[in-house]
Amino acid sequence: MSKLKSIESRILQCIQNKFFSRYVSLPDQNKIWTLTVNPEIRNKTPLVMVHGFGGGVGLWIQNLDCLSSSRTLHAFDLLGFGRSSRPTFPGDPEGAEEQFVSSIEQWREEMGISNMILLGHSLGGFLAASYTIKFPQRVKHLILVDPWGFPVLPTDPSEVRSPPTWVKALAAVLSRSNPLAVVRAAGPWGPSLVQRFRPDLKRKFEEFFSDDTILEYIYHCNAQTPSGETAFKTMMQRFGWAKRPMLSRIQLIPKDLPITFIYGAETWIDSSSGEKAKEERPNSYVQTLAVKGASHHVYADQPSIFNEMVEEICDAVD
């Protein structure tokens, strides 16, 4: 954990706006590692950002300054990931999901946030939607960035979009162990293994880091007890699909709560979920946006376009 702390500090030094980071203690004794940028803005609804599988607050580095220019921004490491506590999750998909959602609500209460613009990427999008179903009064606008776990797994194999090589490799590992077990087993060679599986990650952040900082960050985020990974594996049917698909529940979000989907135009995630969500929520605001030149990590593939889109959504809130 000390190595992760050191690498993350190096990343956060790139933030130009005023910020601070700390642990937020929950009533159940777990702790959520939290980053707050531009904390002194009081007249705007704060933006809360939830990372995806295997990530952490450091991966938002290309978005933090821009998106906090006119409002306070909070980002946190999900329970079981990054620098947050690594508890044992329930062994059933509904229970695991509920613990994630409960930890987000406990975090909100401890932070004293009355309501927020909630943005989630990938697994974070799935959990943000689940949170909004249970606590809709706390969310002014839900932004889902290439969300995982929305569609129902097709019965016809020809309808399943072929994922990139790294996803297939990860899926093969899943059948035997937790998703990132190979990375942990690699020990000091872990960052090199991350580079081998995901050579694109270093390029995505090259404007900030010419060295292996991001690869080391991702490795050390995932070199610890695989608490969140185990929960993710419990919740998933196959790597791209959830046992409890979110589309089957999206209509439970109140009709007056706006939702925006942001997809990478070249993503391997099923991007039809945005339009299907609109069908499930007639007479409500559901917008779907596509970012050209971006794959699954939209926020890092095309940060300027992504930031502009999110800013526009936030400005429409207040």
List key phrases describing it.
318 residues, alpha/beta, 38% helix
Which spans of ≥5 residues are poorly predicted at pLDDT below 50? none
What class do helices, strands and sheet pairing give?
A: alpha/beta
- Report the order of strands and helices: HEEEHEHEHEHHHHHHEEEHEHH
Strand order of the largest sheet: 1-2-4-3-5-6-9-10
Q: Strand percentage, roughly?
A: 15-25%
Give the biggest sheet: 8 strands, mixed
End-to-end Cα distance, whole Å, is: 38 Å
Beta strand count: 10
How large is the radius of gyration? 18 Å
Summarize the structure.
With 318 residues, the protein is α/β, with parallel strands linked by helices. It has helices at 2-12, 64-67, 93-111, 123-134, 165-174, 181-185, 190-197, 199-204, 213-221, 227-235, 273-280, 298-301, 303-317, and strands at 19-25, 31-37, 47-50, 73-76, 116-121, 139-145, 236-238, 241-242, 259-264, 286-291.
Please write out the topology:
Elements lengths: L1 H11 L6 E7 L5 E7 L9 E4 L13 H4 L5 E4 L16 H19 L4 E6 L1 H12 L4 E7 L19 H10 L6 H5 L4 H8 L1 H6 L8 H9 L5 H9 E3 L2 E2 L16 E6 L8 H8 L5 E6 L6 H4 L1 H15 L1
Parallel strand pairs: 3-4, 3-5, 5-6, 6-9, 9-10
Antiparallel strand pairs: 1-2, 2-4, 7-8
